[in-house]
Design brief:
The complex is a heterotrimer of chains A (444), B (285) and C (328). Chain A is of the alpha/beta class and 444 residues long. In chain A, 45% of the residues lie in helices and 11% in strands. Chain A folds into two domains: 207 residues, Periplasmic binding protein-like II (D-Maltodextrin-Binding Protein, domain 2, 3-Layer(aba) Sandwich), CATH 3.40.190; 189 residues, D-Maltodextrin-Binding Protein, domain 2 (3-Layer(aba) Sandwich), CATH 3.40.190. Chain A is built from 19 helices and twelve strands. In chain A, the strands form four sheets. Chain A has a five-stranded mixed sheet, sandwiched between helices. A three-stranded antiparallel sheet of chain A has the order 8-7-9. In chain A, a hairpin with a 2-residue loop joins strand 4 and strand 5. Chain B folds into two domains: 46 residues, no CATH class; 209 residues, MetI-like (MetI-like fold), CATH 1.10.3720.10. In chain B, a hairpin with a 2-residue loop joins strand 1 and strand 2. The longest helix of chain B has 39 residues. Chain B is flat and about 75 Å long. By secondary structure, chain C is mainly alpha-helical. Helices cover 71% and strands 0% of the residues of chain C. In chain C, helix 3 crosses helix 14, helix 11 packs antiparallel against helix 15 and helix 13 packs antiparallel against helix 14. The relative contact order of chain C is 0.14. Classes of the chains: A alpha/beta (444), B mainly alpha (285), C mainly alpha (328). At the B-C interface, helix 1, helix 4, helix 5, helix 6 and helix 8 of B face helix 1, helix 2, helix 3, helix 5 and helix 6 of C.
Chain lengths: 444, 285, 328
């Protein structure tokens, strides 16, 4: 492997300067205590560790991670750490290329689209540090294990997840005598009331990550399910699924404009920031975008708990982030050491990400959590770990579910209904797609 | 006197007609560019207000987007990488496509036509099919995550293109010129190097330009083979590092596009005359 | 000039044909004496290019053929031979046929617009007028911007809320205001989404078509046109019988190269719509990417991508045949 050129001085200096501003408030002593807690084995000294991860939506987080967090760990253990970034949507392509090449990074991150089960034969078994991490930090939230578990072994470390709460305009709600969108029904009433006043709502009826997450939150809160806990049986063909589809159609007809068919993950951010949207169901990046671009709207934007379904159930489907180690990595001990250290630094990550990263480890999820525990409007986010779920709920995130997610079958079902296709026709199509995909993987 | 005026009037009318005809084209081509230029200097809040006029500054212009580009990304490296990659690709393309084009056009080799078609056909194979096997090749050669990987793979589409281009050029060079060279005692190689090549310079330049532009149009290979921030070329670095999660850095994105696109456009325009001349005038020189 | 040497290639050689007409006998004598040496020389010149594409396109292509007849998945190093199963499975997918249809529509519509716009622009640029260089420089800009980045800019121009296109149309009174039914959602309405993708492609590449054609027009020898004038041909007759046959091969080659690049390139559609809404703008490379890479079915993805090749072959043969027929 050719040795890549070192980062030019100019860039690294400026990055560091950038970081000093961003990282203000973090005491070095706390960090040092954390670093001392763990002593890495000597054999990893003098090695190089290469990490591939997404571009975090908060640039300061990447600056912290690249030139402070990994650097300090590396200096302490004599390891040279290099971090590369690509957008989360392109991670699968990059992973396929590294797999085909049998070379690349030591550690690779998956975001939203978790490919552990596709690649586990080529990944290192991390069960030991997974269970050690659980022991050290009060255990894992129940939804964490199935993300990375294959045949009893853990092939990845869930590091953090991204929540998609309700973000609503309290000023508009109050002015029209509307109750906070604590249930999906209330959210629908609000949209119906506010659309004629120029403030519709919007959820992506399209092929993007948010659509996969949001419509599952709705479906599961309506009591629906995707697959049973064994992961073998499809549960999508249900009364609840039909109700959710019917509800989504009504929500679209009454409260949205057709623009939602063109939306990607970023569109609802702008929709809120422009002051048009009455509420959206999105990651807090939308909240942060609004803070930076439209302070008036930001002041009146409040965060709500996942709305409850008709039966009072709340399930919040979140975007998972998982780190894995390639079997072809020549530096597995250092990679494992680093991931263990990263697990131990969850709170620091939450701080640096301005409350964006949510912890899988229960000790980190205790109130008050960093950043979000201190912000009155964001405190509600601390109640999400109890209701968080991932794709395939209540079953695990299996290979067929991965394919279903990557081919956007579920959002397509909602889209077809919103476009006016009969619910039974859509059910027939969607269930057919699920069956076809499940059958193919069973055969293989 | 009278005829002069009518000539001038005629000329004016002709000009007006031409300009009228060109206006829509210029608008279509330039309107998005102008709008990108404005956006690159806008503050972010200016973008997210529906009442704002998109063609002008509703808030004071800012250089922040460019400072993000230069201080928070490896944009400087990306430009250097792009230039270096393109230069290498152009060189490799010339060294292979020029001789090949000559051989196919001039030497009447048995099977030349089929070989020509075969080379052309490789241009038909989509990158989507090739990128996984190629990543194996790239890794075996130890080029993964270095921009050299792109120097290796970009000629797979520039060579077929430029071979065909050069074939066309060489065919326009009159056979007598080579014969004359032979009479003067040049060998086959000598005739090629000293007679045919010099009159084909415009064609060679055109190939270089194409190698440059085609190298800047790739996205997939760059994405798959090069992930370190300081090794990416501009067309890969910008979309991969200025889209963060669900946040787009619009101003910086567009600034980056223009910073590399406009100089190339100027260069391109400069060589355009040579390109056209290469086909028409090169022969009679 | 003999017919053999005129086959194939972007052939702009009408003038050359006029200028160089060496006596056939002399030519044969010249080449005939050095036949063996000439062949060695020729193949040596040809070898680097041929080897390069053979190794870096041919070999990977064969590997993809193997993928297409195997059950290869990402992450699973062991693949079994399963015959034409992947092709059959693709054949039975609704989405595959939608993608196939969209690909053909994309190809044809984009080609028509590119030749129309390209031809008219080339005609205009053929004239002499002041500011010609400046205007020529301006219209080639779209072609010189890196494709991935300019597509992202278009994505912003097509935004459902902040579309600058809609802003203009709305101010001109051609469409309603935001939120009204006549406010187009470029990337969200099925018929508009594909059109929007095609428009970006046309915008990007019509300057290129124009330049290639301009070269073609300029190469039509003045003597030929003058001769036609003397013969009393009208402008349209001249255009129809003299100019068209001469530029046609160039037009075809230019279009073909560009079309191949367009169709096999996924960035326009992938970055604009991901093939949506639904599958309304899905084209084969995007489908192959989603199934092969994102969902991990390498074999199935390779099979779908391979369907691009037969789609492009007829175009290639048509063009090559045309080139041969139009030799003179």
């Amino acid at each position: 492997m050719s040795d890549p050129r070192p980062v030019p001085v100019k860039a690294s200096v400026s990055r560091r300067r950038f970081l000093t501003v961003a990282g203000a408030g973090v005491t070095t002593s706390a960090l040092l205590t954390m670093l001392d807690a763990r002593q890495a084995p000597a054999q990893i000294r003098g090695t190089t560790l290469r990490i591939l991860q997404w571009s975090h939506f908060i640039p300061a987080y990447d600056a912290w991670f690249d030139s402070k967090f990994t650097k300090e760990w590396g200096d302490k253990n004599g390891v040279k750490v290099r971090v590369d970034h690509i957008p989360h949507l392109e991670l699968p392509a990059r992973m396929a290329a590294e797999f085909a090449a049998g070379a690349g990074h030591d550690i690779i991150m998956n975001a939203s689209s978790i490919l552990t089960r596709l690649y586990y034969r080529s990944l290192v078994d991390l069960s030991d540090i997974y269970s050690q991490g659980g022991k050290n930090h009060g255990g894992w939230i129940p939804a964490a294990g199935p993300l990375v578990e294959v045949e009893g072994k853990h092939y990845g470390i869930p590091m953090f997840y991204i929540l998609l709460p309700m973000l609503y305009r309290k000023d508009l709600f109050d002015a029209n005598g509307l109750k906070a969108p604590d249930t999906w029904e209330l959210a629908r009433v609000a949209a119906r009331t506010l659309k004629p006043k120029g403030h519709p709502t919007g959820i992506q009826f399209s092929q993007c990550a948010d659509a996969n997450l949001n419509w599952r939150s709705l479906l599961f809160s309506f009591g629906g399910a995707e697959a049973d806990p064994s992961g073998e049986n499809i549960l999508i063909d249900s009364k609840e699924m039909r109700e959710a589809l019917r509800f989504a159609k009504a929500l679209f007809d009454e409260g949205m404009t057709p623009e939602v068919f063109s939306w990607d993950d970023a569109s609802d951010n702008r929709f809120l920031a422009s002051g048009i949207g009455s509420w959206i169901h999105d990651a807090i990046s939308a909240y942060r975008t609004t803070e930076d671009t439209n302070p008036d709207v930001f002041k009146n934007t409040h965060i709500g708990l996942e709305p409850a379904g008709p039966g009072g159930k709340r399930v919040s489907v979140s975007s998972a982030n998982v780190y894995m180690i390639w079997k072809f990595s020549k530096n597995q001990p250092a990679a494992k050491e680093f991931l263990a250290h990263f697990m131990d630094s969850g709170k620091e990550g939450m701080t640096q990400s301005r409350g964006y990263n949510m912890p899988y480890l229960l000790a980190d999820a205790q109130k008050p959590m960093p950043v979000i525990g201190a912000d009155p409007k964001m405190q509600i986010l601390q109640d999400f770990p109890k209701i968080v779920a991932f794709y395939g709920y209540p079953g695990p995130f299996t290979t067929p579910i991965q394919e279903v997610v990557n081919l956007f079958v579920l959002p397509d079902m909602f889209t077809r209904v919103a476009r006016g296709q009969a619910i039974e026709d859509v059910m027939k199509w969607g269930v057919g797609e699920y069956r076809r995909i499940f059958a193919k993987h069973k055969r293989a | 006197m009278a005829t002069q005026r009518t000539t001038r009037q005629k000329e004016t009318r002709r000009h007006l007609l031409i300009y009228a005809g060109l206006t829509p084209f210029v608008l279509i081509a330039v309107f998005p560019i102008y709008w990108m230029l404005i956006t690159a200097f806008k503050q972010e809040p200016d973008l997210y207000r529906m009442g704002n006029i998109p063609f002008w500054f509703n808030l004071p212009p800012t250089l922040k987007n460019f400072s993000i580009l230069f201080y928070q990304t490896h944009f400087g490296d990306w430009i250097i990488n792009t230039m270096t990659i393109s230069a290498w690709v152009a060189l490799i393309t010339l060294l292979t496509a020029v001789p090949a084009g000559y051989a196919l056009a001039r030497l009447r080799l048995p099977g030349a036509e089929n070989i020509g078609i075969a080379i052309f056909m490789t241009y038909l194979v989509p990158g989507i099919i090739l990128f996984l096997p190629l990543s194996r090749v790239v890794a075996t050669l130890g080029l993964q995550d270095s921009w050299w990987a792109l120097v290796l793979v970009y000629p797979t589409f520039t060579i077929p293109f430029c071979t065909w281009l050069m074939m066309g050029f060489f065919k326009t060079v009159p056979m007598e010129m080579e014969e004359a060279a032979r009479v003067d005692g040049c060998g086959q190689l000598g005739a090629f190097l000293r007679v045919v090549l010099p009159v084909s310079v415009p064609g060679v330049l055109t190939s270089v330009i194409f190698a440059f532009t085609l190298s800047m149009q790739d996205f997939l290979y760059g994405l798959a083979f090069v992930s370190p921030g300081d090794q990416k070329p501009v067309p890969v670095g910008v979309p991969t590092e200025l889209i963060r999660g669900d946040v787009y850095f619009w101003g910086s994105l567009m600034g980056a596009a223009l910073l590399v696109g406009l100089p190339v456009a100027v260069l391109y325009n400069f060589f355009l005359d040579r390109f056209i001349q290469g086909i028409t005038g090169g022969v009679v020189k | 000039m003999t017919t053999a040497s005129l086959r194939g290639g972007p052939e702009p050689t009408a003038r050359a044909a006029v200028v160089s007409a060496p006596a056939p006998t002399a030519e044969r004598a010249w080449w005939g004496t050095h036949s063996a040496q000439r062949k060695i020389f020729g193949y040596t010149l040809l070898a680097p290019a041929a080897l390069y594409v053979l190794l870096l396109v041919g070999a990977p292509f064969l590997f993809s053929l193997w993928l297409a007849v195997s059950d290869a998945n990402v992450g699973d190093p062991v693949a079994r031979f399963i015959g034409l199963e992947n092709f059959r499975a693709a054949w039975e997918m609704d989405t595959f046929w939608i993608a196939m249809r969209n690909s053909v529509v994309f190809l044809v519509v984009a080609a028509i617009f590119k030749s129309l716009l390209g031809t008219s622009l080339a005609f205009l640029l053929l004239q002499n007028f002041r500011g010609k260089k400046l205007i020529r420089g301006l219209v080639v800009i779209p072609f010189t911007l890196p494709i991935a980045i300019s597509v992202l800019s278009w994505k912003w121009m097509y935004d459902s809320q902040f579309s600058v296109i809609n802003w203009v149309l709305s101010r001109l009174g051609l469409i309603g205001t935001y939120g009204s039914d006549s406010w187009p959602i470029w990337l969200g309405q099925p018929h508009l989404a594909l059109a929007a993708c095609i428009a970006v492609n046309v915008w990007r590449t019509f300057p290129f078509s124009a330049i290639v054609l301009l070269a073609g027009f300029t190469s039509v020898p003045l003597e030929v046109i003058d001769a036609a004038k003397v013969d009393g041909c009208s402008f349209f007759q001249r255009f129809r019988h003299v100019v068209v046959p001469m530029i046609f091969p160039i037009l075809m080659i230019g279009l073909l190269f560009d079309t191949v690049f367009t169709l096999s390139d996924l960035s326009v559609v992938y970055l604009l719509t991901q093939g949506g809404p639904g599958n309304a703008s899905k084209i084969l490379p995007v489908l192959a990417y989603q199934i092969g890479i994102q969902a991990g079915n390498l074999g199935r993805g390779a099979a779908i991508a391979l369907f691009l090749v037969p789609l492009l072959l007829p175009a290639l043969f048509l063009v090559l045949r045309n080139l041969k027929r139009r030799e003179y």
